[in-house]
Write a structure and sequence with these properties.
alpha/beta, Uracil-DNA Glycosylase, subunit E, five-stranded mixed β-sheet, three-stranded antiparallel β-sheet, 25% strand
Length: 218
């Protein structure tokens, strides 16, 4: 199976464009040239920066279980995110011994960080031409569909819609001429801090499996 990877030049441009922000590392998108799905998350976390692999750790295991439930594996899908570097913030944590240590915590990427890496996601979508783009959480959904899009309203719906791409000349997001199939669902990590979401998320993935078996019609 032929794998796809963005060019070194585009990766270097992405690193340069985001260098002034509170981010670290760079995690490449991962998957085949002709995937069954493209998964778009928000940004790598601490685990991903360490491993260099998208969606590792607890959220990764949750995502792999969802894929397995519809007969797919990591190797069948292209996994990426709105931002390829880990956004962080500093915070304090008290250890068991009572010592207070300062450490980095994950945070959601901001608009400028999303713009910095927008050309990477745009190129990935153009290159792999995914039959369905599954957005994981609000960040990925809003990056492609617009800031008014909300996961609670749209999850589990197969949308056929133009998507947003970054236009350097106008300094703004514009809509594509062509339409794409977008299937919004919850970020796999959301079930850890909001257990009630699991029922919705699992139902979304079951529906996605049915849609794929019927070759994406609704």
């Amino acid at each position: 199976m032929s794998m796809y990877r963005i060019s070194e030049e585009l990766a270097e441009l992405g690193k340069k464009r985001i260098a002034d922000f509170a981010v670290e590392g760079f995690v490449w998108g991962s998957g085949p040239q002709s995937p069954a799905l493209m998964l778009v998350g928000e940004a790598p976390g601490e685990n991903e920066v360490e491993t260099g692999i998208p969606f590792t750790g607890r959220a990764g295991k949750e995502l792999m279980a969802s894929l397995e439930g519809i007969g797919l594996e990591r190797e069948d899908v292209y996994i990426t995110s709105a931002v390829r570097s880990r956004p962080y913030k500093w915070g304090e944590k008290r250890t068991r011994s009572g010592e207070v240590v300062t450490r980095k915590y994950n945070r959601a990427p901001n608009k400028k960080e999303i713009i910095a890496h927008a050309p990477i996601l745009d190129e990935e979508i153009r290159a792999v031409k995914p039959p369905v783009i599954v957005t994981l959480g609000n960040i990925g959904l809003q990056r492609l569909v617009g800031r008014e899009a909300k996961i609670m309203q749209l999850h589990g719906t197969l949308m056929e819609t133009p998507i947003l791409y970054w236009d350097e000349d106008s300094g703004s997001f514009l809509e594509t001429q062509e339409s794409y199939h977008i299937f919004p669902t919850f970020h796999p990590a959301s079930v850890f801090y909001n257990p009630a979401v699991r029922e919705h998320k699992d139902a979304d993935w079951e529906k996605l499996g049915r849609l794929l078996r019927n070759e994406v019609h609704e």
